Amino acid sequence: MENTSQVPVTVLTGFLGAGKTTLLNRILTEQHGRKYAVIVNEFGEQGIDNDLVVDADEEVFEMNNGCICCTVRGDLIRILSGLMKRADKLDAIIVETTGLADPAPVAQTFFVDQDVADRTKLDAIVTVADAVHLSSQLTEHHEAEEQIAFADVILLNKVDLVDESGLDRVKDRIKKINPFAKIINTTRCSAPLDEVVGLNAFSLDRILEVEPDFLESDHDHEHDDDVTSLSFVSDTPLDMDKFQDWFGNLLRTKGQDILRSKGILNFKGEEERYVFQGVHMLMDASPMGPWPKGKDRSSRVVFIGRDLDNMNLKEGFENCKSA
Amino acid sequence: MNADLEALQKSNKTELERRGSIFNIGAPATEAVTIRDQIAVGFGDGTVRFFQSGSDPKTVKAHKGVVLSMTNYEDHVLTGGDDGRFLKISSDGNIDEIFNFGSKWVDCVASHKDTKVCSSGKTVYIWTKNKDKPQTLDHQSTVAGLAFDNKGKRLAVSRYGGVTVWKLNNNKWTSSNFTWKGSHGTVTFSPDTKYIVTAMQENQIHGWRINDKADLAMRGYPSKIKSFTWVGDTPYLVTSGSSDAVCWPFDGKEGPMGRKPIVVANGGKELATFVKALNGEKAVFTGFTDGSVLLAEIDESQKPIMIRSSTGSEVSTIAISSDNSQILIGDMKGSILLSSLWADN
C-alpha cells in the first residue's frame, strides 16, 4: 500500500567522471523550492558546504539471516533513521554511490530494514552514464554493466561530445542490457530535476508503457554483454498460488543471477492490480488499486540478470496461467 | 493471551494524564535524561528542553539538525548532533562546544564522572579531566553504541561484527573483542558487569558472558529492538521489539541461557518501542507504537496499569526523575507528557 508519509529516495549511480557531481550540485543549488537531503560518499569529488549534505562511508554489511546474497548499507540505515527524526519534512533524499559500487546493497537496504521501509521508499535508481566512455567501461568493468542493469532512469550525459551514430551505438548497448530504463540525453546533466527526483519509478506503472514487440525482437544471442533482460505478457489471468510458488522458488534458487525483477499482475478473482519488484533474492509485492478503465488487464513480468536463458522463465510463467 | 492494552484503552484519559501537563513540541523527542529534579529532552529540531514540574520547559537551541544522542554529565547534559557538534549544556542554557566534527555526525555519547566520550564515524573520542586533547580509539566500522560499566573502568563499543571492550590501565586503553556475525547497535553492561548485551540489526539481541566470552542469542522478536533496560535485583533485561515487554533473567551462573523470558504488558496489535525501569522496583514502563504506555510488574499474574493513552505516534523516550517522583514520556510527533507518578505529589 502507498504510504504518503514515506520520503522518496533516489539512488544515484554512475562511473567517476560521468557527471554525478554536476547533477548533485544542481540539486543542491537550484531554486527548486524543495528540501532535498543528499547523502554523499567520502570518496566523492564534491566539496559542497550545505546543511543537508551527509557524509557516508559505504559500509556494506552482510545480514545474518541466512540469505546468501543479502547485503545492506549499514551506514544508510543509520543515516536514514537519523534524517527521519528531523522536525522539518524532507521532500526527497538522494543517495550517491561511488563509481565502482554495486547498486544491490543500497537497493536491498529498502527491503530488509523495517524502519527504513516504513519511513522511506526507493523512488528510482538513476544512473549517470558518459556517452563517450560508456562502451569501454561496459567492456572493462562489470560494475558499469550492473549500474545500467539496475537503472530506472539513465542520464546519458555528454551527448554533445559524440556524433549521431556514436550516440545510437551507445543507446543500443544500453538497451541490450536494460530496455526498460528511461534514457534522457543530456549535456552537463541538464535534465529537468523533476525527471530525475520524485519519479515513483519503483511503483512500476511505467512497466506498462514499454513496448513488448521491441523486447521480444531484442532478445538475441549475438552481443557480448552477459546481462540481459526478458519480459513476458499474458492476457489470461494468473493463478496467485501458482505464481507465488514459482516466483518464490525462482528467487530463492536463482536470485543471485537476477539483478532486477518487476511486474504487474492480473490474478484470477482479484479486482486489484498487483505489483512486485525485486532485487536479487528480495522482493516486495502489494496491491496497487483497480485496473485503469479501458485498459487491458494484462500481466507483465520483467527480468534483468545473467544466465536468464537457463531458468525456464517462459515455461514457468506460462504455467502460472489460470486454468 | 490477554491484550492488556486493548482493554485499558477503552477507558478515557489516564490518571497521570489528568494530573500531568502535555506539551506539543512539534519535533520528534529523540532522547531524555535526568539531571537532579529536571528532565532534559533532545528533539529533532536541534533543541534541548529542560522540563520541571510546575513550570514551562526551558528551551536551549543546541544543534542545527537532530539531537542524535544525549547523556548526563555532572550537572550538565552532553549531546551529539547531525550538525557534527559535541556539546556540554547546562540547564540555564549555557552551551560549551567540546568539539566540532564538521559534516560528520556525532552518533553516540557516553560519560563517567569527569570523562566525556563521543563517537563520530569509526572513532571514539575520550576527554578526561583537564585535558583539552581527546584520546582516540579506532574501529573497523562505524560505532553504533557506547556504554561504560558502572565503575567506569571499561568502555564497550558496538559495531559491525561485535563489540570492542576497552579497558583503562595506567592511562592506556587496551582492547578485547567480542565477536558475533552481524551489525550491533545499542550496547549495555549488566549491573554486575558480568555480561554485555547488544541490540542487533536483525530482530534479536546478543549477549556475551564477559569472563569466558560465551554467547547468548536472544531471538524470536517480530521487529528490531530499539530499547532495553535493567530491572530489579535479579536483574531482568527488559526489551522492546515485541507485542510485550520481554524480560530475560540474568541471575545465576548461566543467566538467560536455556531459559524462557517472562512477558508482561501485552500491547495487542501494537509493538513495544521503548522500555524504562522504575528505579528500585521490579517494574517497567513500556511504550508502544501507538503512543500508549503501560506500567507492569515483572510478574505474569499481575495486570499492568495504563499510564498514557494512545497518541497515534510511537513512544520514543521515557525518563523518570532521580527521586522517582516524575515521569516524562515523549513520542515521534513531539508530544510530551510530564506527570507526577504518585497521587500525593
Describe this structure in words.
The complex is a heterodimer of chains A (323) and B (345). With 323 residues, chain A is α/β, with parallel strands linked by helices. Chain A folds into 2 domains: 7-203, P-loop containing nucleotide triphosphate hydrolases (Rossmann fold), CATH 3.40.50; 205-318, CobW-like, C-terminal domain (Hypothetical Protein Yjia, Chain: A,domain 2, 2-Layer Sandwich). Helix content of chain A is 29%, strand content 28%. Chain A contains 10 helices and 14 strands. Chain A has helices spanning 20-29, 74-83, 104-112, 114-119, 134-140, 142-150, 164-177, 212-218, 240-254, 313-318, and strands at 7-13, 36-41, 53-56, 60-62, 71-73, 92-96, 120-130, 153-157, 182-185, 227-234, 258-265, 272-279, 282-290, 299-306. A 7-stranded parallel beta sheet of chain A has the order 3-2-6-1-7-8-9, sandwiched between helices. A 5-stranded antiparallel beta sheet of chain A has the order 10-14-11-12-13. In chain A, helix 7 links the parallel strand 8 and strand 9 (182-185). The longest helix of chain A has 15 residues, at 240-254. The radius of gyration of chain A is 19 Å and the shape is globular. The two termini of chain A are 29 Å apart. In chain A, 44% of the residues are buried. The longest helix of chain B is centred in the N-terminal third of the chain and has 6 residues, at 4-9. Chain B has 345 residues and is mainly β. Chain B has helices at 4-9, 15-19; strands at 21-24, 29-35, 38-43, 47-52, 55-61, 67-73, 76-81, 85-90, 95-100, 108-112, 115-120, 123-127, 135-138, 145-148, 154-169, 172-189, 195-200, 205-209, 214-218, 228-231, 236-239, 245-249, 262-264, 272-277, 283-288, 293-297, 305-308, 315-320, 326-331, 335-340. In chain B, a hairpin with a 7-residue loop joins strand 26 and strand 27 (305-308). Chain B is globular, with a radius of gyration of 19 Å. Chain B is built from 2 helices and 30 strands. Chain B has a single domain (4-339), classed as YVTN repeat-like/Quinoprotein amine dehydrogenase (Methylamine Dehydrogenase, Chain H), CATH 2.130.10. Chain A binds chain B through residues 51, 53-55, 57, 59, 61-65, 72, 74-75, 77-79, 82-83, 85-88, 113-115, and chain B through 26-28, 30, 43-46, 64-66, 68, 82-83, 103-105, 107, 121-122, 141-142, 144, 160, 181-183, 200-202, 223-224, 332, 334.
